[in-house]
Amino acid sequence: MRHPIFVFAGLAAVLALAACEKEIDRDAVDRKLQDINVIDESNLNEVMLTNSDPNEAVSYFQRAAASQPKRIDLQRGLAASLIRAKRPTEAVSAWKKIVQLEDSEADDKVQLADAYIRNNQWQEAEEVLDSVPPTHETFKRYRLEAMIADSNKEWKKADSFYETAIGLTTTPSSVMNNWGYSKLSRGDYPGAERMFVQAIRQDTSLFTAKNNLVLARGAQGNYTLPVVPMSQQERAELLYTLGLSAIKRGDVETGKGLFRDAIETHPQYFEAAVRSLSALENNTAN
Question: What residue range is the signal peptide (predicted)?
């Protein structure tokens, strides 16, 4: 005959085991949910950094960083969003806070230097980059180094940094354009022209490089448009830039002709060229 006490003890053990299994399952589910939440949040953070309205992104990361102040990724998201929103003064403060955190990295200093440059604080940017270890070799670091060398008119250093930066990216068009503008500012017009051509080959949609190319050609007295891909509107704007270059060199009649070409080329009313041409003709009449 079985004793009831053993039956009850066995039943209690079974119930306890079932309860433990349920608890284990609940913990596993909680962990899975946490993993999903982290993935969803990471995706949301990425969307806010790239696709959302910059000021909306700032508000989002301000709330997120305030609720979880120890999360350096949220602090970085806020600082990057401030840059996108063209609020460099606030971005400088945000990156300064980040570089003081224990788990900050060398790239955070590079981002601070970038914010300083955007805020026209070149000396501060140079000091920050000087504190970055030389082993931290990134495209952005060398691009900023080149820009600072340009600001100091240290042309050899600038050329070296630009060359290094180009070798560290698969999309060098923007830095080629910067390098070309550097040469343009030094008066090396042929060198600038070559660099702008290379930039356009890398990215045919880069209108800034096309406009700079026209400036380099105009500075040499070459008033023909370069053979590069361009829309009708771009063609009109480039003719206008070329006209301004001609006027600057004292070739007034050539400038007038280029303004007329710009007006005829533009599919709509090209107000800037019309105003400039009218002003020149009025001055001539007077």
Answer: 1-18
